[in-house]
Amino acid sequence: MRSDDFSAPYDRLTRPLVRDGGELRPASWEEALDRAAAGFRRGVDEHGPDSFGMLSCARATNEMNFMAQKFTRVVVGTNNVDSCNRTCHAPSVAGLAAAFGSGGGTSSYAEVEDTDLIVIWGGNPRFAHPIFFQHVLKGVRNGARLFVVDPRRTSTAEWADRWLGLNVGTDIPLAHAIGREILHAGLANDTFVRRATSGFDEYRALVEPWTLAAAEAETGVPAEAIRELAHAYARAERAQMCWTLGITEHHNATDNVRSLINLALLTGHVGRHGSGLNPLRGQNNVQGGGDMGAIPDRLAGFQDILDPEARAPFEAAWGREIQGTKGKTLTQMFEAMDERELRTLYVIGENPVQSEPETEKTTRRLRSLDHLVVQDIFLTRTAELADVVLPASASWCESDGTFTNSERRVQLVRKALDPPEGARDDIEIMCDLATRLGVDWSRPSAEEIWNEVRSLSPMHRGMSYARLAELHGIQWPSYSEDALEPSYLHSRLWSEDPAERGEPAPFGIVGHSPPVDLLDEDFPFRLTTGRRLDDYNTGVQTGGFSSPLRRGELLDLSPEDAAKLGVADGETVRVTSRRGSVLVPVSVTEAMRQGLVFMTFHFPHQVDTQLLTIDATDPIAGTAEYKAAAVRIERVEKHAGSAAPAP
Q1: What is the pLDDT of residue 400?
Q2: Which comes out higher in pLDDT, residue 563 or 281?
Q3: DSSP string, 282-350
Q4: Residues 557, 568: Cα–Cα separation, whole Å
Q5: Is 198 exposed, middle or buried (CB count within 10 Å of its CB: 0-12, 13-18, 19+)?
Q6: Backbone phi and psi for residue 308, each to the nearest 5 degrees, phi listed first
Q7: How large is the average pLDDT for residues 298-317?
Q8: What is the pLDDT of residues 31-42, one digit of tens each?
């Protein structure tokens, strides 16, 4: 079955649209910009600046994200700015920042090629991060052992020395059992723990109940496999701990991240070449968007919005006081729509109707807004709800600027094409809106914006466009144009001088919390979601192109469960959660364990998987539990493709 049967290519937006009489109609740029600005002004005048929200774009340049957060804070006067970072790796940022003070991965890709042990926990980079996986393969060919921890036996796991197939939502018990085994085997790095960490006694007491037997009973991973990973990780001279959405898309995601960081602190696998912690970002500029301050609690350079000294240079440069309070996260913005606290929303390049959990609830909330402006290259399902639609540029080929990848490398990109006639650059659009709202920015070039970033963010100061071009990218931090910092972070923790070591890295005292959506007789299967190699996110950019690998949306099911249900490969089943129901063809595969099923969100026009997911969110990072829905499966004879909300 091919998804091409269900998805037609999106037409590129080349004319602004405005809503009249409930319908979107073409408009001139002047009319559309006037309408967009008038709606924002009306909302602020009537309900205050905090009634406004901005969703910035993780696929757009650093410069665009910097201007988006500047628009939010300077033109509107609120910190309500966020992006799809909230959907995926906000828990990684929160967990790393809590331990080390900054939210970036600690190593370079090259170090993965030059390490002794690689742990990939909760991710399938063979499909979801194929460029990074090439570095993993080089590491394996150079002699590194590879352990994969994942509920599914993924294509990445096929390359592993050992696959640990754990039950969904039991990452913390497994991590705690590994830590306990390291302690009981006398393999902890006592010197590093004593010098560079805090909270060790509490951590030791925390993990003590998680014996190998107790962990096996909870996680489903054999005790001897847990022991093997514990000993291999602790004994390795250099080791890389890598994770992705299998760790972060849970209601306790930040705790999950902290549990993995604990293992690095216990063994000293951080702050050295070849040893580190690496969250793998899924979109080309998720890291950069956060670095630029397009998040509600940080300014550019990951500077704390609550710190008056951090705010002062921005206020001086911008001539406006910045609120000293955290803004709303994406999750909190949507919740605030229910209370009518958030009235207007400016969405740049995001598609929450198809990316957020519980599609029906998301759609209802967006419809409740007084004013919704969507700036995009296609008329997405989110744009279909807008009051004003603004045709934008494709940042990866139609704009100058920079991107920042998962290893903190800032790379220069050059405009290769002009946007189609009628579409405009994102930054140009924002500047025109700012002018209508009383702030004249003219139209700065991407390099001028980047130089403003460098003037305000110490960790980007050494990254001129000329130097980025010469060196083919630079990892942050880069404090000076006269030097390059090491490729890895937190080497200070290894200093013998306490003053140089600075603040110790605290162990995270985190407990086990099972998935919110409980399994029972009515909903006996655990649905987890993810990505496949041949398609991208909600399919807007890839669904209209043919692929020899694509088979459309499928429900991956174990042979044992298929036999129990009496279904064969390709048959249609109804999958129902406590929130919705969809029809989808079955794919019987030995990659799945009994009781576990898997779907993607690539083909929402064929199968809207997000009807099934739950919006239980991590209280620290605001990320939803996409990875753990409870569902039932029923055999039907109907053609796949229809979907309906739960009765």
Answers
A1: 95
A2: 563
A3: SSTTHHHHHHTT-BTTEETTTEETT-HHHHHHHHHHHTS---SS----HHHHHHHHHTT---EEEEES-
A4: 10
A5: middle
A6: -60, -35
A7: 96
A8: 999 999 999 999
